[in-house]
Design a protein that fits this description.
There is one protein chain. The protein has 308 residues and is an alpha+beta fold. The protein has three domains: 53 residues; 64 residues, Peptidoglycan hydrolase domains (Immunoglobulin-like, Sandwich), CATH 2.60.40.1590; 167 residues, Glucose Permease (Domain IIA) (Distorted Sandwich), CATH 2.70.70.10. Strands 11, 12, 13, 14, 15, 16, 17, 18 and 19 form a nine-stranded antiparallel sheet that branches. A hairpin with a 3-residue loop joins strand 13 and strand 14. Helix 1 packs antiparallel against helix 2. It binds zinc ion. The site of zinc ion has 4 residues, from loops.
Amino acid sequence: MSNPQSSRRHPFRRGLHASRFCASLRRVALLRASLLSVALFAAACLLAAPAAALELPRHRSVPGGVAIVDLGASVEAPRVTLGDVPVLVVGNPERWTAVVGIALAAEPGVRHVTVRRAAQAEERLSVVIAPVRYAEQRLRVAPGKVDLSAEDLARYERERAHLAKVVATHTDAVPVSLRLRQPTPGQRSSSFGLRRIFNDQPRSPHSGMDIAAATGTPVVAAATGRVIDVGDYFFNGKTIWLDHGGGLLTMYCHLHDITVKPGDLVAAGEHIGEVGASGRVTGPHLHWSVSLNRAMVDPALFLDGVEE
Ligand SMILES: [Zn+2]
């Protein structure tokens, strides 16, 4: 889990669009065959070249959200921590940005991140966390359905300890992209943060996005990364964890089939498994989670075309 992230790189989608734009300009330039057009084409291509900055997730500073914090200019990237957990920093010497995951359990109010720059005094920047009210679901079920047997409880505790180590994975490489792909086609639920209360006992809130899909539907990597864990867990069923660098991880649960193994490098959009109904579920779907600096955050903030 501590091996350095691969430096394998894939072009951003934005970059591909820019080159298509340049190709059509090139045809126009050739038709006109004038020096002026060629000069204009060159200037347009420079403007359309992919920017060095990554596209950021949407800023939503609430429990389960992501705060985008401007760090200003400095020659080297500042090192930022929230508590003692390293925070993702992206940008360039003209402008650095911290991308801070906020835990679902965080209290609304002011938190601070610590910013360290070479040869400068430590700085504390405030992050204001606004309150949010996620939906609540109260269920009455037979007691045997919610109380685990001693054997199941022991298994769950072992798995919880293992998964705490997985979620703490941090490699320094900055993710190739902060815009993620929906890992399987299908209806996205907006149940992130849903508070489930079984027989008056609150359970952990829903910390991911459920995507409805039939068993066998292909699941692809949401971004370029490295497989850091594969397992078959009591609640999550057959599960894959990917490390995208900088403390950004994604998790894919309840799979029917897994076609990757720990250590594998995967490109964004590469096939990693199939939707299923393994673990504690009522039917086939993909549960997909995004973890940033060990906080499970709303995957919708990283996808195109989802507004809440
Ligand atoms: Zn789920």
